[in-house]
Amino acid sequence: MLKNMPRLTRLLLRLPKTNNYNIHQPKILVCRHFGQPVALTHPHLLNDGEVTPGITKLEYLTRRVNLVDKAINLYKQVQVSNHIFIIPGAVKSYMTNDIPYPFHQQTDFLYLCGFQEPGSVLILESAKGKANNHTSTLFVPEKNPDKELWDGPRSGKDGALTVTGVDSTHNISDLEKYLYDFSKFNPGFVLWYRFDKPSNVTVHNAICHEFMIEPKYRSLEDPTRLCQQLRSIKSPAEIDLMHKSAEISSEAFIDVMKFSKPGVNESALYAKMDFECRIREAEILAYPPVVAGGNRANIIHYINNDQIINDEELVLMDAGCEYHGYASDITRTWPVSGKFTLAQKQLYNAVLNIQLSCIQLCTVQFSLDQIYHAMLTLIGVQLQHIGLLDSQLKSTQLMKAAKEYCPHHVSHYLGMDVHDTGEISRSINLQPGMIVTVEPGIYINKKNKTVPYEFRGIGIRIEDDVLVTDSKPIVLTDGCPKTVDDIESIMASN
Ligand SMILES: [Mn+2]
């Protein structure tokens, strides 16, 4: 009888009896156990002991130890019972009913534990006499079959313990009780919590309720600066990820350059960049790219990207991907036709010379602000050289004029966030392990009647990502072409 049945029905009937079913069952359970990739389910991404590709549990532990150490050191002379850090992760946010934005984890939280699920909270408590100077507790969304049916698996508290290697894990619903008990048994603690920018309103209300109404802490401190001090110096594993992120973006830029031609829509170049980054395994673009043809390049944050780029126009693209949580940030400017005009080439080479000089200054002898001032002087001199600024201008007048041609800074720190570690001053000397952008530009609006006609409506920026070392700076984005010859030959190779 079985012989006459359709094959699928026969298979279904026999399924419980075959070994195949039993072999596959445990694998299915494993796959559904975690809310993020782990070595067991994604061996192509992670090795044993890694929380994030390339970043081990031990590295995450070291980061937490270093953070708590900083707090203990700051309070060395002051009598306090202990320190508690409350670091909430991001919550899901919605575009419209039931439609979420792509989730992006809060980066301090991610830096300290690598846990990817929305609505989680990390707590660190300093602990005297403990080898690792603290205990770490992660509060995570509870496992919930109904929700998981729609949104995919959650790790739950047991899975989160396996994924991250923190000391203990609880359901997020236990947080308020935990805070209540903590404040009851720990008089005179220091509360490290970012009060002015709550990333999770429910958690914020719980903290207010347990700690703030009748303040039970000795002092309230913002942990952001301490986290950022750690984050500003990249570890070897982070440098590898940043390098990979930079390589992906550089290769994608080459494909976008080859793809561009007169009459192309800016949106097509945006789409091409997105595609070429994702196909190389970047998760997402790190920010909405600027794809600006012609005079639109003079709008620094132009992201409409919906215009046609005409023959003889330059296109300025500022774009970069995010790879396992690490951003790259590149700008290139190229002629959509594949050939620079004489004026474009003159101005482009001026910006390139300035950029190459600024990259050489990315050493421990200088701060980003000093490099910025050097950029302004260099812009002034280059514009005098081309004849766009009066050669008689004295240095302060020259700097002032240069500022009108470049209204932005030359650099920012780069890392998990594009504008990374914003609380680290740009006036401190660079340190080995920092990664910074170098991005001078010259922008000439088409309304500028003080320059010859052929220079009007040109905006040029060249941006690379640079690793500071104890000797020479290393350009992580050096795979992205930037000389006139390299760009023209890449575009001719189509
Ligand atoms: Mn940038």
Textual characterization of the structure:
This protein is α+β, with helices and mostly antiparallel strands. It folds into two domains: 50-230, Creatinase/prolidase N-terminal domain (Creatine Amidinohydrolase, Chain A, domain 1, 3-Layer(aba) Sandwich); 233-492, Creatinase/methionine aminopeptidase superfamily (Creatine Amidinohydrolase). The chain contains 15 helices and 21 strands. It has helices at 7-14, 19-31, 57-74, 107-113, 145-151, 156-164, 175-185, 201-212, 224-232, 236-259, 266-278, 342-360, 368-386, 395-405, 484-492, and strands at residues 50-52, 55-56, 83-88, 94-96, 99-100, 121-126, 134-140, 168-171, 189-192, 217-221, 284-285, 290-293, 314-319, 321-323, 326-327, 330-335, 435-438, 441-444, 458-461, 464-467, 474-475. Helix 10 (236-259) packs across helix 11, helix 12 (342-360) packs antiparallel against helix 13 (368-386) and helix 13 (368-386) packs across helix 14 (395-405). The model is unreliable at 15-31 (pLDDT under 50). Manganese (II) ion binds at residues 329, 412, 437, 439, 463.
Q: Low-confidence runs (pLDDT<50, min 5 residues)?
A: 15-31
Supply the CATH superfamily name of the largest domain: Creatinase/methionine aminopeptidase superfamily
For the record, what CATH class of the largest domain applies? Alpha Beta
Bound ligands, each once: manganese (II) ion
